[in-house]
Sequence to fold (1260 residues):
Amino acid sequence: MKLESADLQKIINGYYEKYKTLKTGHLADYIPELAKANSDHFGIALVTVDGKIFTAGDFSQNFTLQSASKPFVYGLALEAIGREKMLSKVGVEPTGEAFNSIIELEKESHRPYNPMINSGAIAVSSLISGKTFNERLGKIVHLFEQFCGHSIAVDENVFESEKKTAHRNRAIAHLLKHFAIIEEDHIDEALDLYFKQCSLLVNTVDLAKMAATLAGGGVHPESRKQIFTAETSRDILSLMFTCGMYDTAGKWAYTVGLPAKSGVSGGLFAALPGRFGIAVYSPLIDQHGHSCRGLKVLEDFSRDFALSVFSNGVR
Amino acid sequence: MKLESADLQKIINGYYEKYKTLKTGHLADYIPELAKANSDHFGIALVTVDGKIFTAGDFSQNFTLQSASKPFVYGLALEAIGREKMLSKVGVEPTGEAFNSIIELEKESHRPYNPMINSGAIAVSSLISGKTFNERLGKIVHLFEQFCGHSIAVDENVFESEKKTAHRNRAIAHLLKHFAIIEEDHIDEALDLYFKQCSLLVNTVDLAKMAATLAGGGVHPESRKQIFTAETSRDILSLMFTCGMYDTAGKWAYTVGLPAKSGVSGGLFAALPGRFGIAVYSPLIDQHGHSCRGLKVLEDFSRDFALSVFSNGVR
Amino acid sequence: MKLESADLQKIINGYYEKYKTLKTGHLADYIPELAKANSDHFGIALVTVDGKIFTAGDFSQNFTLQSASKPFVYGLALEAIGREKMLSKVGVEPTGEAFNSIIELEKESHRPYNPMINSGAIAVSSLISGKTFNERLGKIVHLFEQFCGHSIAVDENVFESEKKTAHRNRAIAHLLKHFAIIEEDHIDEALDLYFKQCSLLVNTVDLAKMAATLAGGGVHPESRKQIFTAETSRDILSLMFTCGMYDTAGKWAYTVGLPAKSGVSGGLFAALPGRFGIAVYSPLIDQHGHSCRGLKVLEDFSRDFALSVFSNGVR
Amino acid sequence: MKLESADLQKIINGYYEKYKTLKTGHLADYIPELAKANSDHFGIALVTVDGKIFTAGDFSQNFTLQSASKPFVYGLALEAIGREKMLSKVGVEPTGEAFNSIIELEKESHRPYNPMINSGAIAVSSLISGKTFNERLGKIVHLFEQFCGHSIAVDENVFESEKKTAHRNRAIAHLLKHFAIIEEDHIDEALDLYFKQCSLLVNTVDLAKMAATLAGGGVHPESRKQIFTAETSRDILSLMFTCGMYDTAGKWAYTVGLPAKSGVSGGLFAALPGRFGIAVYSPLIDQHGHSCRGLKVLEDFSRDFALSVFSNGVR
Fold:
C-alpha cells in the first residue's frame, strides 16, 4: 500500500489497538526508579516534516529520555567542535557488543566505537562546553526545549537513582579519562551531566517532533527553525541507522530499515528522511533494552508500507 | 546541486579526469594472479533504473568479481531457501572484524555474522542447491548473465591461483562444517564453487547494471525482467549498507551513506534506491581491500549531490 | 603424612577402592570410536624414578594416548630443532581458552600459544622431520616404544574415526599453514601424523613409565636410558604445569600442584620431579576432557601427602 | 653445579658485578613519583629458610612494594575468609592479558581471573575486614612488619601520586562494585587501602625475608613464627608461579621455573620451596613492568644451578 494515500490517523489507531494488550517484556530494573513505571502505558505519535501530528493512547505521558537523548546531544557537540575533532574522540563504527560495553575501549584506538553506546555518549556529554555545570546543562536543556516547544524538567528521582547505582558508567568514565578521551578533571561532574541528560522528561509527541526534525533536514516541523544543519541531521540519522539499536542494528536494518533510537525507559523513535518522525512509548522492554510494543509497531509499519530507506522509490 | 538537473555524463567525466592520475593504493597480492592487473585501469559506469548508461575510461575492461559477487549470490540463495532458514545459517549483523575473520565463528551462535564476509559468503555458496557441481555453478553463472545481458566466463588462472593459496578460506570452510553451517560432505567442492563465483569476469558497465537492478527493486534496467523480488533487493541493499564495507561500514555510512560493495580486484559499486547504480573499477586498493579511486569517486559524488539515503528528500 | 614412610601399594589400592564405584562423567563422544569404551575400566599405576611399580585395577587395559602424547612429541621435536626455532613456531604461554581453540591464532603473533592445545600440537607434529610419512611416524612410534619397553600399535579404527570427523583440527591446520607455522605442503599428511600419534595404544603402566621418565630427568626408570635430556624433561614438565590442564591449569596448580597431562580417552598422568610418575585410566571424562576418576585420585593423593611442587621440603 | 656446595655470598657478588653496569629498561612513569627513582640502584638479597642472609649492592635502599605486596595481602585475606569464599570472589587462572587488564571482568564469571593482576588485588584488599579504614590498614601493615622485623611506613608522596592518577584502577573498582565482587559501599576507601598497600616502603632484605617465609612453609626464617600456614604458603607460591609474572608467566616457568612476583617500582622476588627466598631491587623495568636486572639475575641463577622446581632432585 502506498503511504501517500493512507489515512495516517487510522493507521496509528490500528497499531495501538493491535498491541495495547501485548504484555511481553519487563520494566527496566537496573535503576529502581524506572521499575516504578506503569506497564500499561502505551502511546504513539507521528509528526510529518510539515507539522501534521497524529497520536494514539498515552501520548502525553511523560518519561525520561535515557538513551534517546544520545543522538541529539551528539548533534549539539558535533556542531560545536566539528567533525574532525569529534572523530578523534568518538568513532562511528557499530560494535557487536551491548550498549554498556567497556571492552572496546581496550582495543587499539581507545576511542568509544560510536556515540550511541554509553561510553561514546559519556564522552560526548563531556565535550559540551561551558564555564559552569549549569551553563553546560543549560545548553542541553535548551536544545530539547527547542524540539519540544515547551519547557522541560529533569526527573530528580531518576537522576539520583541513576547516579547512585551507575558503577558501570562510572567505570567507563574513569577509563575514558585514563585514555584522555575525557579531558576535564571532574569525572563526577561529567557523569552528572550525562545522568541529567538521561533524566529529562518528555512525552511521545515531543519525541516524535525530535524525530521529525531529523527527517526534515534539521528544520523543526512546527517552528520551521533550523535546529541542526542538514549535514548534522544526515550524520545523526546515519549513526542511528548503523549503531542506534546496538547489537541488533543489523537485524533492525534488515527488518525495519529506518534510522531509530531507543531508550531503556521505553521510548523508541524512528525517522523516514523527507517524510516524518514516529515515536512510541511503552515501558515494557526486551533483553536488549528496546520497548517491545515499540518494536512491534515499527516492524509492522515498515513492512505494511515498505518504509525501509532501501525500498524508497520502488514501493 | 540537485542531481535531477545535472548532466550525468559530464559529472562522470569530471570524476574520471580528477582521479585518473591518482596512484595511491596497491595491487591485491594475496593471490598472484591479481597482482598482474594494470594499475592504470580506471573505469566508471552509471546506469539509471530506467536504463540510461553513462561511462568513462576503461569501462569495458574485464576484471573478476571477487567479493562483489557476494550480495547477488546471497539473493539467489535467499529466494531459494527463504528468510528463516537463511537466518539460521548466516546472520545479518555487522562485525568489527575484517572481511576474512574467523573469530566470530567461535562465539555463541557459531553462525557467520553476515554474508558479506568470507565465512558468510562461503556458507551462502554451499546453500546453492543442485545435483551436481556444474548444475550449481550453472545457477550462479546464469544469474550474473541475466544482469550482464551477455555470456560470462570464469578466469581459470585466477580460480586456480585462489584455490591454491586459500588456506584461510579452507580453514573457515572446515570450521563451518564443524558447526554444521555447511551441511554437505564435500568441503572442497563447496570452496571450488565459491572460488569460481569470485573468478567470474565482468566489466564496469556490467557491475553498474547489477547495482541498478538492486536500485530498481529487482527489475533489470534494460530487460525490465524482475530478477529479484523487491523484498530481496531491499534485503540485499540493507546488508550492503550495514556490512558491505566490512570494518569501515560505519564510516562509509557516515561519509557516503549509500549501500555499496567492493571486491579486492578493484571493483566497487553502490546503489541509490529508486535512482541508479554506479560502479568504478580500478585495481589499486587500500588496506581494507577497497579500490582507492572507487572510494574517491563515490565520496565526491555523494557529497556533491547529497546522495546519502539519509538526506533523501531534503537535498 | 610423609610419603617416604608410606606403603605405596596400599595407598594406590585405597584410591582404587574409594573411586571404583564413582560414575560421574561421560564417555568422549566427539569421535564415535571413543564412545565405545567401557565406562567401568579404571586402572592406576605408579612408577618411581628408580623403577618400582605399583598398580591397581585395569592397569593393563589399552587405550589411545590422545592429548597425553603431546608433551612427548614436543620433547622429540624440541631436541631435534632446538629451543629458538621451537619458540618461533609455538609459544609457551597458557591460554584462557579451551584445548581446541582457534582464536589465539588470530592474535598478534599467529603462533599457537603452547604445544598442549591442539593448534600447538599439530604444529609440533609437522616439525618432526623425515623424508617420508612413514619415517616421521616411525620416529614417534619409536619414542613411545622406548618409554613402554614393548612394541605399540595405532588403533586404526580410532585413527579413521578421528580423521573423518576432525573438521576443527583441519581448520586449525589450514590456518597454521596460512600463517606459515606449518611449512610443508601436505596439510593432510601433517594431520594424519597427528591423528596417528593420538591413536597410539598404551596402558596405564606404560603411561606411568612415561611420567616417571620425566620425573627422573629424562632417564627411563627401568632401562636407565637417557631418553630426553634433563633440560628437555624440565621444559616439558614446566609446560605441563602451566598449560597441561588447559583452561583449568590455574585451579590444578592451586589444588594439586603437580605437572600433569590428560587425554580425552581417559588417561591422566602426573610427575613429582625426582620421585615418581603416576597414571590413571578411566574413560569417564568431565566437560574439560579430563578423566573424572583420574582427577579425584590425583587431588586426594596430592592433598594427603602434600605432593605439590610448592610444598616440597616442608611437607 | 650443586647449590649445596656453592658459596652463596660469592654467587650473589658475581651476579651483582655482572649486571651492575646494565642500563637496559626505563623508570616506571605511570606515576610521577616512581620516575624519580635512582636508576643506578641495584641490590640483591638471599635469605635461607633457616635464616642465613647474603646481600650485595644497595640492599638497604627503600622502595615501595607495589605489586610485590599482592601475594601477601592475598594470604592475609585467604586465611581470614577461607578458600571457598575467596574463590567465589577472585579466581586462580592465568590470563593472557596484561596486569592492568579490565577485559576479563566482562567475561562469564565477572570475577577477576587471579589476585596477581590489579582487578584481583583490588578485590582482595576490599576483603580485608575491620571497622575502620585504619583498622584494615593496620592489619596489612602489621603483616608486613612481621616479615620485615621492623616498623614500616607508607611513602605518602607515592600514595598521593598513585591516588591522583589511577583512573584505570578506579574504573576497575567501579566495575568490581557493579558485579558485586566488591561489597562495601566506599569505593574510594577500598582504593585508598590498595594504594597504601602498594606504597609501603621495604628494602631488598625485607623482600627476601618475605620470600623466604613462603619458601619455608610460612615460618619466618629468623623469628621462626608461623606467619602463614603451610597450606596458605603453598597456595601463594602456586599462584605466583602461574600468574605472578602476568602475560609472561609461561615463559618465566619455562626459563626460570620458580614462583616469583615483581613490582613496578623495581622489586622482584622468587622462592625455592624448602630452600630460600631471593630478592632483587633495581628500578629499571621492561615493558611488562619487571625489573630488567632482576630478570637477568634470576634467569642466570636458575640456569646456573638448575633451580627450577621441575628439576628438583635431579639436578
Q: What stands out?
A: The domain at 67-198 of chain C is CATH 3.40.710.10 (Beta-lactamase).
